[in-house]
Write a structure and sequence with these properties.
Elements: E1 4-10, H1 16-26, H2 32-45, H3 60-65, E2 72-77, E3 82-87, H4 95-102, E4 107-113, H5 120-131, E5 136-142, H6 151-165, E6 172-177, H7 201-207, H8 211-216, E7 221-223, E8 226-228, E9 237-241, E10 246-248, E11 252-256, E12 260-269, E13 272-274, E14 276-278, E15 282-287, E16 298-300, E17 307-318, E18 329-334, E19 337-350, E20 357-359, E21 368-381, E22 392-397, E23 403-409
Parallel strand pairs: 1-3, 1-4, 4-5, 5-6
Antiparallel strand pairs: 2-3, 7-16, 8-9, 9-15, 10-14, 11-12, 11-16, 12-13, 12-15, 17-21, 17-23, 18-19, 18-22, 19-20, 19-21, 22-23
């Protein structure tokens, strides 16, 4: 079974880091030296003997403030599967970090405090996750111990969650009650929630599909990261990672932007020959013809090519400290290619509370907007829903060189 990548999200203090710490601890994925370090840090902070949130809050600034600022990545495995966790920040000012953590995730684990309910930042994280192409969501209703594990309190909040998430059209949505602090419904069920018959968090994670499996069934998209020059009798090779589809020795491919057709002569991984490679594999591809292929070129399926675009209709998740400048010039980074772009128009903004489009005004930090960009040179794109790799781009401020937006091609 493919490893599962999932990102945590939610509002500040909902217990994301504690939940991941509990998951790692109860799944016996914490080494003894890590546990000893957390115990010492817990004592220094004057908290409980073992503050499990410190297993993921790795930065000194985070431990001092008791919050998560950066995205903390953790890896663990059970006998059934391997997992990669991106523990994302909850504070509104760190939304860009949350978007980074979710960008490569197969699923989103959204925490909701049963007493606070569904907060605006929680809604924003759910919306961003869906915009980023995440199709599977788990909502963990945390701190059930504070309401005496009340089934009525859970059902009321579950109804509100499902009502909001219905418009996001997740392929699957599981709502689980629990307590990260005490471990109920994380790995073990716990007697306090005997009225809940659904899966534990770990059981649900075991059952979720990895997006790499879906990507392998898509059209071939192989961005060239490096073109190795012929040397010592070895032919030119195109190095990179297959983002979508598969490569098979002998099959015809199309190289963009040149538009040249050729065939796959050899596929190499760590110097070893392969007959086939699929999405997620990093390979060196040797083509039959000696074509002038360079970094930023795209090798694709000639039967299902991406479209050439000099204008992009896109959804922008605005991450910049300065507002979006209508008519402003930005750099578009798409796969390995970069080109200058101008904001032609801003059509609408998305209200994160109602999920309805509103009249476009100023687009500021954390806003989500629909816009049209005109490009100086063409890029080859798919809609983001069809192929995540070629449907995504980032927007860079030309003056500061800061990333100011995540863009999704419509």
């Amino acid at each position: 079974m493919q490893p599962l990548r999932f990102a945590t999200a939610g509002s500040v203090d909902d217990g994301k880091s504690t939940l991941i710490g509990r998951l790692l601890y109860d799944a016996r994925a914490v080494q003894e030296d890590q546990l000893a370090a957390v115990e010492r840090a817990s004592v220094r902070r004057g908290g409980p003997a073992l503050d499990l949130s410190l297993l993921t809050d790795g930065l000194e600034a985070e431990r001092e403030q008791g919050i998560t600022i950066d995205v903390a990545y953790r890896y663990f495995a059970t006998p059934e599967r391997k997992f990669i966790i991106a523990d994302s920040p909850g504070h509104e000012q760190y939304t860009r970090n949350m978007a980074t953590g979710a960008s490569n995730a197969d699923a989103i684990l959204l925490l909701v405090d049963v007493e606070k309910g569904l907060l605006p930042q929680t809604r924003r994280h759910a919306l961003i996750a869906r915009l980023l192409g995440i199709r599977h969501a788990i909502v963990f209703v945390n701190k059930m111990d504070r309401v005496a594990f009340s089934a009525d309190a859970f059902r009321e909040l579950e109804q509100r969650v499902r009502s909001f998430a219905g418009a996001l059209d997740f392929q699957s949505l599981e709502v689980i009650p629990g307590s990260a602090l005490h471990g109920d419904m994380v790995v073990e069920r716990g007697e306090s929630l005997a009225w809940y018959a659904g899966p534990t968090l770990l059981e649900r994670l075991h059952a979720l599909p990895a997006s790499a499996e879906d990507a392998a069934a898509g059209p071939l998209r192989f961005p060239v990261q490096l073109a190795a020059k012929p040397q010592q009798g070895q032919p030119r090779g195109c190095m990179g990672r297959i983002d979508s589809g598969h490569l098979l020795v002998g099959t015809e491919v199309l190289v963009l932007p040149s538009g040249k057709h050729t065939r796959v002569r050899r596929i190499l991984t760590n110097g070893e020959e392969r007959e086939i490679a699929v999405a997620g594999d990093s390979v060196t591809v040797v083509l039959t013809d000696e074509l002038d292929v360079a970094r930023g070129d795209l090798i694709v399926d000639p039967a299902v090519p991406p479209r050439e675009a000099r204008e992009l209709q896109a959804t922008l998740v605005w991450l910049g400290q300065e507002p979006l400048r209508p008519g402003g010039r930005y750099l578009v980074q798409h796969a390995g290619r970069r080109t200058l772009a101008r904001i032609a128009s801003i059509e609408a903004k998305l209200d994160v509370g109602t999920l309805e489009e509103t009249q476009a005004g100023e687009v500021a930090l954390n806003d989500i907007a629909r816009a049209t960009l005109r490009l100086q040179s063409p890029v080859f794109v798919d809609s983001y829903e069809a192929v995540r790799a070629t449907g995504a781009f980032i927007l860079i401020d030309e003056a500061s060189n800061h990333t100011v937006a995540a863009g999704l091609v419509r």
